[in-house]
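tokens incoming
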């Protein structure tokens, strides 16, 4: 209906919109210029892109941002969640604790304020996986749609991936009869702009304040969404960097590009790895973004001049695993992790010139891989999860201050947060009481001994509860010695977890409840 109405509008004029129902007007179509638009806005003149300001989050010192939890912290308040709930992941680009924790509940959403206030219920635009704060409300996004919410139950604005064929640019031109099912992914928030991958060959930027599609970028270089193309055209990698000025995206044919966040216009293009980045690029306090350039190299790209400021190469090509290195900045310290066949090399560089600063060179970590996005640092020490332990590394010389053992998680990795008085550690997912593989093997062996059909519902229920009944351990350590102060177990249903720790707030959300620690 929306496609047919757009054809009437296209060749009959805006007057054709008067009798259209609301649901048709809210549908999205793909006009000849290749930038998706809601049918209600199709006949309106297109305003210039980039007309709305994009806010840039200012860096905060490590000391000011550090959580203030004490060694005696405990659960202060609890909000129970209905059965079948799951907290949404936070979008990339969010630096502060959100004002609300958004939880999926069946076909609806529940927004739980992290401060004072009561939870509110909202209608979901469809399956969603990520959420973030925006001025006056929040935004959620999933594979088919992104929606902005205010105080009301229904979204203020919804973007949906067009499912109708592109509109022709003139009468008589044939139209494709089937539209490929491209999905949204790789969400990154840059002020009021949400950037995402649309399928594997396009980027799309949504102006959440102006409620429109700002720009579209094709991997072939065009400023339009073209769902039909050659199968060998370049693909965008799954990880993006976005801030108030630029978007940095990887092309898996051996390039990466810097785009203007307001217009999508290309600002720079450099050579890069053909293997997907292990973690997204990261920004430094002095206006650089750290981008992997190969299996052992990192470049500090100047966001003002759009040129490299310095480059780093670890060397030792024979032992490289082929995975691009990770880089992360903590104040004036840049940490680079290079994965090798026998472990991981960790190097500290100066943010201004890329000079290696540890007297003994790179620190070797006997681990298959590490993830610097799950590490944290204070002014003098890096707290790094390595396998089933936390290692405290002195930033001055790269030596180990202490190492603390972590309990088994049966799969999920650990995240570390450096507080003022404690080091906080928790898994990325809620932990089952027993590994699911062991439970499944035991149930299969039991059924093999007595293969009776009436036992199947009971065995299936046992397997489900073994998967669903979990807990999230939150551990507090002494930052000077590594001694464990306390363990707080938060009940959970299912694996999904969102945890936020900053100077004033400590909130943990699971599929069972939202708790505040103090």
């Amino acid at each position: 209906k929306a496609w047919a109405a757009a054809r009437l509008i296209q060749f009959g004029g805006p007057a054709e919109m008067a009798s259209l129902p609301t649901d048709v007007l809210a549908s999205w179509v793909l006009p000849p210029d290749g930038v998706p638009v809601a049918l209600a806005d199709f006949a309106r003149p297109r305003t210039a892109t980039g007309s709305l300001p994009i806010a840039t989050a200012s860096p905060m010192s490590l000391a000011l941002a550090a959580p203030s939890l004490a060694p005696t912290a405990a659960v202060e308040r609890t909000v129970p969640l209905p059965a079948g709930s799951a907290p949404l992941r936070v979008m990339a680009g969010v630096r502060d604790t959100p004002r609300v924790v958004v939880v999926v509940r069946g076909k609806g959403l529940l927004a739980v304020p992290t401060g004072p206030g009561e939870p509110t219920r909202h209608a979901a635009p469809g399956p969603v996986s990520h959420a973030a704060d925006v001025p006056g409300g929040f935004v959620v996004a999933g594979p088919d749609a992104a929606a902005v919410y205010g105080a009301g139950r229904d979204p203020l604005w919804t973007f949906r991936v067009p499912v109708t064929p592109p509109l022709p640019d003139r009468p008589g031109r044939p139209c494709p009869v089937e539209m490929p099912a491209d999905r949204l992914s790789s969400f990154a928030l840059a002020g009021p702009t949400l950037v995402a991958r649309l399928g594997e060959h396009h980027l799309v930027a949504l102006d959440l304040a102006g409620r429109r599609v700002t720009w579209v970028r094709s991997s072939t270089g065009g400023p339009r969404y073209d769902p039909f193309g050659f199968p060998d055209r370049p693909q965008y990698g799954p990880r993006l960097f976005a801030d108030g000025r630029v978007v940095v995206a990887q092309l898996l044919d051996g390039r990466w590009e810097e785009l203007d966040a307001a217009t999508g216009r290309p600002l720079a293009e450099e050579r890069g790895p053909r293997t997907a980045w292990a973690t997204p690029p990261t920004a430094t306090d002095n206006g650089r973004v750290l981008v992997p350039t190969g299996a052992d190299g990192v470049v500090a790209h100047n966001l003002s001049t759009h040129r490299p400021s310095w480059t780093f190469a670890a060397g030792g090509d024979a032992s490289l695993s082929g995975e691009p290195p990770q880089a992360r900045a903590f104040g004036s310290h840049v940490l680079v992790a290079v994965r090798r066949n026998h472990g991981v090399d960790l190097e500290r560089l100066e943010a201004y010139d890329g000079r290696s600063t540890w007297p003994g060179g790179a620190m070797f970590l006997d681990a298959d891989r590490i993830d610097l996005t799950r590490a944290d640092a204070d002014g003098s020490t890096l707290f790094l999860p390595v396998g089933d332990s936390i290692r405290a590394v002195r930033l001055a010389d790269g030596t180990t201050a202490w190492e603390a053992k972590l309990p088994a998680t049966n799969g999920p990795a650990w995240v570390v947060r450096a507080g003022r008085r404690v080091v906080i550690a928790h898994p990325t997912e809620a932990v089952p009481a027993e590994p699911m593989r062991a439970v499944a093997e035991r149930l299969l062996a039991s059924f093999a001994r007595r293969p009776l059909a009436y036992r199947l519902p009971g065995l299936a229920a046992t397997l489900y509860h073994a998967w669903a009944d979990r807990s999230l351990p939150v551990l507090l350590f002494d930052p000077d010695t590594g001694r464990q102060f306390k363990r707080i177990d938060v009940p959970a249903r299912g694996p999904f977890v969102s945890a936020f720790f900053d100077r004033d707030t400590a909130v943990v959300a699971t599929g069972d409840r939202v708790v505040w620690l103090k």
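note: Residues 47-61 have pLDDT under 50 and may be disordered.
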